[in-house]
Amino acid sequence: MRSLEQPAGNEPEKTPSSTATLPPLPADAMIIVPVRNFVLFPGTVMPISLGRQRSIAAAQQAVREQRQVGILMQREAGENEPLPIDMHRMGTVANVVRYLTAPDGTQHLVCQGEQRFQVLEFLDGWPFFVARVLRLPDVEGQSPDLEARLVHLRGQAIEALELLPQAPREMIAAIGSIETPGALADFTASYMDIKPEEKQEVLETVDVVARTDKVSRLLAQRIEVLRLSAEIGKQTKAALDERQREVLLREQMAAIQKQLGEGDEGKAAELAEVEQAIAKAGMPKDVEDQARKELRRLQRMPDSAAEYGMVRTYLDWLIELPWSLPEETPIDMAEARKILDEDHYGLDKIKRRIVEYLAVRKLAPQGKAPILCFVGPPGVGKTSLGRSIARAMNRKFTRVSLGGVHDEAEIRGHRRTYIGALPGNIIQGIRKAGSRNCVMMLDEIDKLGAGIQGDPGAALLEVLDPEQNNTFRDNYLGVPFDLSRVVFIATANMLDTIPGPLRDRMEIISLAGYTASEKLQIAERYLVRRQMEANGIKDGQVEITEAALREIIQNYTREAGVRNLEREIGKALRNAAVRIAEGAEGPITIDKSDLADILGAPRFENEVAMRTSIPGVATGLAWTPVGGDILFIEATRVPGNGKLILTGQLGEVMRESAQAALSIVKNRAVSLGIDPSLFDKHDIHVHVPAGATPKDGPSAGVAMFMALTSLMTDRTIRSDTAMTGEISLRGLVLPVGGIKEKVVAAALSGLKRVMLPARNKRDYDDIPEEARNQLEFIWLERVEEAVEAALDPASQAAS
Ligand SMILES: Nc1ncnc2c1ncn2[C@@H]1O[C@H](COP(=O)(O)OP(=O)(O)OP(=O)(O)O)[C@@H](O)[C@H]1O
Fold first, then answer.
1. I need a labelling partner for 154 at 20 to 30 A (CA). Which of 91, 384, 694, 782 fits?
2. Do both 313 and 171 map to the same domain?
3. Same domain, 695 and 736
């Protein structure tokens, strides 16, 4: 209800700077800013636009002198050059909150009304209006009568606000917080939709009781008008029946969209397609209802709305998920066997187990088959076995990686309220497979973490539980999805870290790794062919000799599986491919002697011989999640006083076994031919290099003992011998785990002899024949036997 100040016509040329020399204002005088069609009330803050030069000068002077101003309404709004006589006699003293110039150059004064004032007389001598005034603060006592008026007026004010189509909440709150009737009357009058003259009348009603009554009367009239208007609105609305209303709204929406330049034809066509897709998707009834509900929301939304894209993506997910079940063909067992043999060399026991599993599924397709879990080092064929199972069952195959999954939402999805939410990786896997009865491989189930964001293991349990997984609920989808026909297969590198409850659900099938000749077979039959195809080499163009393959297996790779082997073969073949492309006359043969040029120097050649050529180094055998490995224990002595120094990030148990080994050596010093005084003059340092191998557990005991014995007797250990075994303080050799993997690793490293605890003889049958044939086995009861067998006879003379 405030009108803008109009720019004045011919204002006398008085610039604000010239006001610096103005006479000082008398004590009861005040700078006056005349305004039009606007009443500032005490207790309210309002901006006033300044147009006339005189008003700008007044405002600038007030700001300069940090003075209050008097806001006074003109009697005639149209008067550009008001004289004192043209102004009301009563106005409001105000503090200047801000004085600002808008980007378009207009000036504004933000004022906070403080109290009423009455003009006593206008004074001359300033380029703006100045008047002597009488301030009129509100006189408000406390009486039940006043209190009653306050309550009544407050009730009315709130009622009036609530009758407005959109009741401003903060206004209601402000009204509730005003404590005195006079202030409430001012506040209400200020915001009420009444004429400026009526507002001026309220301002001029200094008596609080009279003022409250006046505002109350005005409000009562207002409420009556508002009520009537609401009533009319309601009646008109009721007159339109629901259908008409919808048509009307749709038309309005279309009109608005047109206004916004959003052509609705493209959108309509798009949504018609979505509707058809929903009808065709084969969704269960409740899912279809949900999809249609979302579609209706889309229809009502402009396609520029941020939410439009989100709902559209959600619908795409619902549409693209394979809800219906494809026909399941019975498993052909003979064919299944053929496929397994076709894809994999060896692995007879495992293939047999898989055939059994398939037979059970064939006989009881709806039954609860166990979940297979392949455990073994990388590259031994876990994933490719999973693919073969899918092929044998005539189903789609999909992989879901669980490595490093810490958050339940990665399995089960984020709620749609999150920005960028998506379904969890189970549902993503299903969509990728495009089939509800796919074979889903849950990779690296042993690397599942448990973080603060819920336990992904628990979510996975639900996925795998046949009692629950027919109504698996992904947070993003918000509707159940039936996973009961999915064939789950898990893979892991190690058993220990698979959460217990998950392990209980699964049938573990271990794949230990391949011997050198198995690798050779796999390479000859599968890997070379596959890499030739991958590198565009035709049959007969390149040949890799057996000797070359053996060399790669022996000296270029050291792994339980065949992944690196395949990579090295690929590298060798690519080299040949380049030569063919450059026009070399075929066929090209890659022999052992060519490898150094193609693949570089052998990586593992003679490592053992080199390392063990000095006293104090023993070759141990370690078990790791990626298969067995050899490991060197190095001991050296430095001048000191008998301390044992251990380095190489050893675990607690391994540190203890080093101490035990030292005690045993000290105990037997004389019989071993060691000068006991050596121990007093030296510190002994034991180091176990090889960063990647986990170094804990007691099984390096024998190797520690031998390294120390070798050091103190100054005799080297045979370079063809590796050892494993725990030791007791009394010199007994105790059994250890992982014998099969360790022995295979020893064979792969080209060693000839292994020293094992006698009580591990029971594991001998598990050791692959090839390794058995390659190695000499020395079974140890006591550490003395190790000394006997391991110290190099050639180094005897030196002692
Ligand atoms: N017995 C085998 N016969 C033929 N090929 C094999 C055999 N074992 C492994 N392979 C081949 O070796 C490669 C690596 O195997 P795969 O990817 O299945 O290993 P993985 O055990 O799943 O490893 P990771 O745990 O790292 O996933 C594949 O190309 C696979 O076909």
1. 91
2. no
3. yes
Q: How far apart are CA 647 and CA 678, in angstroms?
A: 21
Q: Is 14 a catalytic residue?
A: no
Residue 542 Cα to ligand 1 middle (Å): 24
Domain boundary among 136, 161, 192: 136
If one counts the domains in the chain, the total is 6
pLDDT at res. 799: 40
Cα–Cα distance list, 595 to 591, 592, 652 (Å): 7, 6, 43
Range of the domain at 276: 262-320
Q: Are residues 480 and 337 in the same domain?
A: yes
- 3-state class (DSSP) for residue 121: strand
> How many angstroms separate the CA atoms of 784 and 759, rounded?
16
742 is catalytic: yes
Residues 532-566 have pLDDT tens digits of 888 888 888 888 998 899 889 888 887 888 998 99
Q: How confident is the model at residue 8 (pLDDT cuts 50, 70, 90)?
A: very low
CA distance 443 to 404: 11
Q: Report if residue 22 sits inside a domain.
A: no
Q: Which residue has the tokens 């591990």?
A: 760
Q: Which of 40-54, 113-127, 261-275, 665-679 has the lowest mean pLDDT?
A: 261-275
The pLDDT value given to residue 576: 86
Answering whether pTM is above 0.80, one says no
Q: Which residue has the higher pLDDT, 130 or 599?
A: 130
Question: Do 132 and 196 share a domain, yes or no?
Answer: no
Check 216, 517, 699, 719 and give the catalytic one: 699
**Same structural domain, 353 and 313:** no
Say if CB 85 and CB 129 are below 8 A apart.
Answer: no
**Rounded average pLDDT over 269-290:** 87
Asked whether the predicted pLDDT for residue 263 surpasses 60, the reply is no
Considering only CA atoms, which of 605, 632, 601, 628 is closest in space to residue 616?
632
Q: Is the CB of 384 under 6 A from ligand 1?
A: yes
How far, in Å, is the centroid of ligand 1 from the Cα of 432? Answer: 22
What is the atom index within ligand 1 of the atom nearest the CA of 379?
Answer: 19
Helix, strand or coil for residue 786? helix
- Residue 588 and residue 579 in contact, taking contact as beta carbons nearer than 8 Å: yes
SS (H, E, C) 702-769: HHHHHHHHHHHHCCCECCCEEECCEECCCCEEECCCCHHHHHHHHHHCCCCEEEEEHHHHHHHHHCCH
Shared domain check, 398 and 299: no
Task: Please state, as a whole number, how many other Cβ atoms lie within 10 Å of the Cβ of residue 352.
Answer: 12
Give residue 764's pLDDT: 93
